[in-house]
Amino acid sequence: MKIATYNVNGVNGRLPVLLRWLAEEQPDVVCLQELKAPQEKFPQQAIIDAGYNAIWHGQKSWNGVAILARGMEIQEVSRGLPGDDEDTQSRYIEAVVNGILIGGLYLPNGNPAPGPKFDYKLSWFERLHKHAARLVELDIPVILTGDFNVMPTEQDVYKPERWVDDALFRPETRDAFHKLIAQGWTDAIRKLYPTETIYTFWDYFRNAYGRDAGLRIDHFLLNPKIADRLKSAGVDRHVRGWEKTSDHAPVWIELAEK
């Protein structure tokens, strides 16, 4: 079973790229972030025509998350991260697909830091900690995946000295990610590639993709009930080189059957 996460940076504007990638790679499940589309503007028919069912949590202009499944039922569990009834940003969706509980998330960027946006990032992380602490202990397979907007270590960022004051790399952010991992989650990419330089995002500016000046900010976290089923993982970095593409590349894992 192949599961992917992809920050599409606008599902309608990048729809040709998304559909091309789906046709070429045919992942079984896909979590999307940054739909940048209200609920009624999600391209459901195009996704259906590509062979996928979908649930989504849209928002006008910003944010937005979705889960797609190829020829499989999606049983929605919840939308929105628990813990703040006043938070209207569309950043979390949770569903069961093929016996696996999947939480698709788009964690806040947090810049500029310090400031209100950084405070929101850290408070969202605290809510994620509380929710994830329950999920990690479940007696079923659970995956948390998406754009975490965190480079966990210096290994995950090109020229880390240039990022020390950025919200994605500040000590508070990295500490929050490591606190999450310490609950018992497995970072799938680092489990299989502990020492390799692997990026999932390249800025549009300064020829970042051409220079391979990237960041690893899109992650797969696996709870103990599914971690031992991890077979392979990777980044479809060539997709970042396509015309009119997202600044992220799709990231995927492959799981052994039970």
UniProtKB/TrEMBL annotation:
InterPro entries the UniProt entry points to: AP_endonuc_1 (IPR004808), AP_endonuclease_F1_BS (IPR020847), Endo/exonu/phosph_ase_sf (IPR036691), Endo/exonuclease/phosphatase (IPR005135), ExoIII-like (IPR037493)
Q: What is its EC number?
A: 3.1.11.2
Endonuclease/exonuclease/phosphatase domain location: 4-248
Q: Does the keyword Magnesium apply?
A: yes
Q: Which Gene3D superfamilies match?
A: Endonuclease/exonuclease/phosphatase
GO MF terms here are:
double-stranded DNA 3'-5' DNA exonuclease activity
The cross-references to SUPFAM superfamilies, in alphabetical order and at most eight, read: DNase I-like
> What cofactor does this one take?
Mg(2+)
Has keyword Hydrolase?
yes
Report keywords, A-Z.
Hydrolase, Magnesium, Metal-binding
Q: Superkingdom, according to UniProt?
A: Bacteria
**Sequence similarity:** Belongs to the DNA repair enzymes AP/ExoA family.
Q: Which NCBIfam families match?
A: exoDNase_III, xth
This one is known as Exodeoxyribonuclease-3
Originating species: Mucilaginibacter terrae
